[in-house]
Amino acid sequence: MYYDPIKNIFASTIRKFPFLRIIFYKLLDLMFLRSWYVRRELKAIRRNFGNKEIDIYDAGSGFGQYTYFMAAKLKPCHILAIDVKEDWINDCRDFFNQKKFDSVSFTVEDLLNITHQSIFDLIVCVDVMEHIADDITVFRNFFTALKPGGYLLINSPSIFGGSDVHHDEEESFIGEHARDGYSKDDLESKLHPLGFSTYKCRYTYGFWGDQAWRLGIKYPMVLLNISKLFLLILPLYYLLTFPFTLIMMNLDFASENKIGSGINFIAKKE
Fold first, then answer.
1. pLDDT computed for residue 126 by the predictor
2. Do β-strands 120-126 and 146-157 pair in parallel, antiparallel, or remain unpaired?
3. Which one of 50, 87, 209, 268 has the largest count of C-beta atoms within 10 Å of its C-beta?
4. pTM higher than 0.70 for the full model?
5. What is the widest separation between alpha-carbon atoms in the chain?
């Protein structure tokens, strides 16, 4: 199953109707449990810097929803948001310029080739690393790009059911993924030799979160891949199912999951 064709439908829609973009961001923040976890950790990290202005690198900004959140909630800050998809970057740049977010810049960059040197206090990389085979090169580039004392927040599927893979013989539910996911040990084995230390690690999408993801995200995506006509009945589907999805998401968000199909890992450059 491929997410990109579905993502492109939404990207095309908000490109044609820019006034829908903020509504779209709010829906993403509501529907995706990973956004709940990421936003909570971002606010906690921001408090570590007090009132000083910080420089943030949004490493794989996608639709721009986390850039929008950080620009509004992590002030004072300056954000460089990047992605490999030029059309998405151009759309975001136009929207943020229209909204007069002077503290945000957008550009096209490939994380394998960035050369930033001790620029950023915080690097945010949400659901990106599972798409990149040569992750060590990217992690090394992140270390170089961070200032001493800076933080790297990685959100990714985990090896414990991430990408909906539960057995060795299963293939990733998401066709664009280069790996099924990470574990805490896996990330530490790759980040610690570069000079990072573990600041915090939390598994997300435990039992309740995984069930919520299936009901709220996986099943609609499967149906949309079968036929785009499912978009017509999607509102009715969510009207019937979302109350149950929301309850399960809250249960997961309040839990300390021993394992889960997602991982939220924060590393620090000492």
1. 97
2. parallel
3. 209
4. yes
5. 52
Can you spell out the DSSP letters for 165-226?
Answer: --STTPPPSSTT-SSS-B-HHHHHHHHGGGTEEEEEEEEE--HHHHHHHIIIIIHHHHHHHH
In the chain, % helix, strand, coil (3-state, to 5) comes to 50, 20, 30
Token pair listed for 25: 């961001």
CATH of domain 4-206+255-269: 3.40.50.150
Identify the residue whose tokens are 């599972």. Answer: 130
pLDDT band at 1 (very low <50, low <70, confident <90, very high): very low
Between CA 69 and CA 154 the distance in angstroms is 16
Split at pLDDT 50, 70, 90, the class of 167 is very low
Domain-by-domain residue ranges, the chain?
Answer: 4-206+255-269
Cβ atoms within 10 A of the Cβ of 153, count? 22
CB 142 within 8 A of CB 152: yes
